[in-house]
Amino acid sequence: MSYIDLKSAPKREDRLKACIAHGSTICEMAGAKGKKSCLQNDGDRSFTQGSICLLLPALAMLNTLPDNVVLVHSAIGCGSCTHSQNANVRFGSSVRQGKVKDGVWLSTAMNEVDVISGGEEKLEQAIIEADRRYKPFSITVVAACVPGIIGDDIDGVIQRIQPEVNARLLPVHCEGFKTKIWATAYDAVYHGIGRTLLREGEQAATGDGLSPFKGLERLPNTVNLMNVSSMGRVDELELERLLKTLGLDVNIFPVFTHPDSMVKATQAALSISTCPTHDDYFLSYLEERFGVPALIRHMPIGIENTGLWLRDVAARFGFEEQAEQIIAREEQELNDALAIFRPLFEGKKVFISAGEFRALATARLLEELGFQVAGIRSFHHDEFAEVEYQKLANSSTEDYVIDIANVQPFEEANLLKKLKPDLFLGHANGNGTAAKLGIPTHVIYHTALSYIGYKGVYEIARRLHRQLKNPIYNRKLSDNVRLPYRDEWYGASPFAYINTQGGTAA
Amino acid sequence: MSDNFIERARYTCAQGGAAATVTALPGGIPILHSPSGCAGNFAWTQNGGSGLQVGGYCGTLAIPSTSIQERDVVFGGDERLREQVESTIKVMDGRIYAVLTSCVSEVIGDDIKSIVADFRGQGVPIIGAETAGFKGNSYKGYDLVLQSLFSDFLEQGVAKKKKRVNLWGVVPSFDPFWRGNLEEVRRLLEALGLEVNSFFLDVDTIEGIRQSASASLNIVISHSYGLEAAGVFEAVHGTPYVSLPLPVGASATESFLRAVGKKAGVRSTQTEAVIKSEKKRYYHYLEPLTDCFNDLDLQRYAVVVGDSNYAVALTKFLADDLGWLPELAVCTDPLQIHEQDRLQEQLKHLESRYPVKLVFESDGSQVIHHLREKWPSAGSGRYQNVFGPAFVIGSSLDRELALEIGAPHLSVSFPVANRAILDRGYTGFRGGLRLIEDLIGAIVAGR
Questions:
Q1: In what order do the strands lie in the sheet with A423-426?
Q2: Which residues are bridge partners to A401 per DSSP?
């Protein structure tokens, strides 16, 4: 029995031994020493700050699906994050489909009565009414904490009600209290897609291996390019450009993909991930059930990583030589173009904060631009990233701090006061601490900006150059506002509140 | 309106409103007794809906949270909460701490009251509120925090001061214009000679809040938000309250000042003098708009979509000050019948006597159907009395409606994704001028 046969995807702390509370260094993370405790027994914090849960990245994906209604089953607040994510839906549908469109998201708004007497009946009625009112192709029924804690069986509801509605119903389990690793979101969404939209076509292995979804042909030159919303259209276009130079057709999956056409993913000759944190769960499924092999190494952020990523793809098709030519040409052109920016970057210290793979790949990119890495905060850690830590350990002359933390700005504030970097790159809603300390900042992820491939390197360089040419906004801000931490905190160890088995790791 | 779901809810849950409210207090530190994701959900909500303002001194992902997990659900989260409050006091520099419970911590039945009381007993400035998301929306959370603040934080038994008042009724972040709206009303009250505590402005202090039971009148500029808290205040501290509609523009503010002046014991000559001077300024600035207002034919039909405060206040301003034709007003809040009646009552007594239809509808996509009902299809042929020229004032989610009826649009009520709002407000005389600028600015943007 594989994971997909379970009602919901397993949490990543179980499946991948992923962890979120560890203070370490690049050398330690790159070697085996000292890491065991983190991977097998995650620490915890006796002081924690709020963060996100898997519901947020899950909704970021689901809201992009055309002709789909997102129905969140929980109290009224769960999913209100969509107000921000809707900007990506509007912009994304405008650049992809030529029309600005708001996402359609609903809440069953469970109240005190529902909590006591159960919300299944309300959910049934909500599904029926949503089906009639919006006539969507699919309804993704997303369970958040409340049904999880009172024991509503959304899979049972879906099974009962599916025959009564036209829309395809996809269950997506996002009970936030059940996993501290929000990357479980990707598994949860993929799980719903796999179990519902790609299930009935499952076929047994034939003589020449597994076949695509029933009746469909294998497309020998088509590759799946996985995008769980970590790339905007501009980044998709950059990777499409590179893959097309190799003569490949690109099927982007799953954001902004009509649920009816998702079966196409089973026809591809290869699935290419841009980030193991996102895709390992689903790519294993596509491989096991539909015979689509997968590439899941290297994030194409930075010059070296983009080359490694492209070489891997080319090798699968026997296009090694073309790849070398393309890479040589691209790197030459890019390096020439970067020359005017480099003097401003040389030797400047940078602190990077993001999801693990993105943080590490971006760190490598910044080194390539001439920056010196002063520290990295990865939102979680799992085994996929080991090779990335090794890349960075090899390229750095000095050891530096690695903070494994699901954000936790207090640790960051402490570290930044000590390290005094010249630049900070952080995720959405994650640059405020550095900005209030007067450090120049830049957002490490935004779907309207370019980050990926060779173009991404250039555009990041261009933006950082712009930021560093006049960083006065943050400086003035820091002269006039203060962070909410006590002075004593800055004197303590940044990891003073991390407890590991056997005591405090400080 | 559906009985089974709410479409694109224009608020978040009680805990989200509560957290924004605590963040807005001077030195306020929320402590969420929640799974880890609640704080992030609120941060992204404000990011997308609060006019580009997120957090404050201690907001967004800086907010302390117990981040309870499955094991706490099984074994209870009391110990984790104690540990978190203790460590929060050591790390976070606050003037007031507030423990806010969530769906998960309330279902598992953690005893936050005694934990909060223990810390308070040790001299920690801390309150607690039961703000589970299933208790209601962000407006409810605002009210719950105020209730705790009033009953557990304010000094009791302080002597009343005659000209001292407290002011509330707009919800931080969930009225994207909350700061500007409070500031202008405060300015006008001060012009009446009153001493004002408004809890959430930069001029407010935690000591002023602690002493706020000395007020002889509480002024709630809402018919919906903060009213239960006003009842608690009266019961605990004996200060009566007056609930008045959010005063937007000259006419509403004039009535507001008279009503407050009367209740607060301001001499009517003083009230009239303030009104006179404010109106003089207002019309002094409005006067030169007259030519363009007429030459460009700037009168509009309008659809107003908003929360309980704005749906009525904006409609009244359009009808009674600007001379526009607000055919349809839509209140997107879930309200009790008696609350709905209070709002209906407001629009029955418009000075212009313009017949506005006020409906209660949570789902933006249904507004067009209400409009078609109010203004049926104009028929066919050469001569059609269409609904136009029209204007849509609502949230950024009402751009779809504006597009459909071919009208310009202004986002005022939450969510406001497409405007940056710092100290702008629409209350009072000055707010009325701002609103005219913004409405007409949207019409003539392509000029």
A1: A21-25, A401-405, A372-378, A349-354, A423-426, A441-443
A2: A25, A375
pLDDT given for residue A502 in this prediction = 42
pLDDT at A201: 56
- Is the distance from CB of A373 to CB of A360 less than 8 angstroms? no
Between CA A143 and CA A146 the distance in angstroms is 8
Q: The whole model's pTM is what?
A: 0.97
CB atoms within 10 A of CB A2: 10
Rounded to a whole number of angstroms, the distance from the CA of A408 to the nearest CA of chain B is: 7
CA angle A488, A494, A498 (to 5 degrees): 115
Residue indicated by tokens 């905060």:
A377
Is ipTM beyond 0.85? Answer: yes
Report chain B's mean pLDDT, rounded to a whole number: 97
Which of B8, B144, B399, B414 would best serve as a mutation to test chain A binding (most A beta carbons within 10 A)?
B8
The residue among A483, A351, A327 whose CA lies nearest residue A427 is A351
Question: How far does the CA of residue B427 sit from the closest CA of chain A (Å)?
Answer: 25
pLDDT at B416 over 60: yes
| Confidence at residue A241, expressed as pLDDT on a 0 to 100 scale | 98
Is B426's pLDDT higher than 60? yes
Judged by DSSP in three states, B4 sits in coil
Which residues touch A362 (CB under 8 Å, ≥6 apart)? A301, A302, A352, A354, A425, A444, A451, A460
Q: What is the DSSP string of A261-326?
A: GGGGGGGEEEEE-S-HHHHHHHHHHHHHHH---EE----S-SHHHHHHHHHHHHHHHT-HHHHHHH
Q: Do A75 and B108 touch (CB under 8 A)?
A: no
Q: Which of A55, A76, A111, A145 should one mutate to test binding to chain B, selecting the residue with the greatest count of B CBs within 10 A?
A: A76
Residue of A nearest to B44 (CA): A81
Q: Chain A closest CA to B16's CA: distance in Å?
A: 7
For residue A345, give Cα distances in angstroms to A370, A438, B39, B132.
6, 18, 35, 48
| Cα A196 from Cα A39, distance rounded (Å) | 33
Shortest distance between the Cα of A177 and any Cα of chain B, in A, equals 5
CB distance B227 to B338 below 8 Å? no
**A484·B93 Cβ contact <8 A:** yes
3-state secondary structure of B330: strand
The DSSP secondary-structure symbol of B50 reads B
Whether pLDDT at A200 is above 80: no
Query: How confident is the model at residue A504, as a pLDDT?
Result: 38
Grade residue B369 by pLDDT with cuts at 50, 70 and 90: very high
Residue pair B307/B50 in contact by the 8 Å Cβ criterion: no
Across the interface, do A50 and B94 touch by the CB < 8 Å criterion? no
Task: List the single residue in B with minimal CA-CA distance to A151.
Answer: B107
Please return the burial class of B295, using the count of CB atoms within 10 Å of its CB with bins 0-12, 13-18 and 19+.
Answer: exposed
Task: Give chain A's radius of gyration (CA, Å).
Answer: 23
Q: Does residue A32 have a pLDDT over 60?
A: no
- When pLDDT is averaged across residues B420-433 and rounded to a whole number, the result is 98
**Encoded amino acid at B266, one letter:** V
Chain A nearest-CA residue for B13? A77
**Which of A55, A84, A91, A489 to probe by mutation at the B interface, max B CB count within 10 Å?**
A84
Give burial (CB, 10 Å; 0-12/13-18/19+) of A336: exposed
Measured between alpha carbons, how far apart are the two ends of chain A, in Å? 42
pLDDT over 80 (residue B33): yes
- Tell me the DSSP string of A407-452: --HHHHHHHHHHH--SEEEE-TT-SHHHHHTT--EEES--TTS--S
Q: What is the model's pLDDT at position A36? A: 44
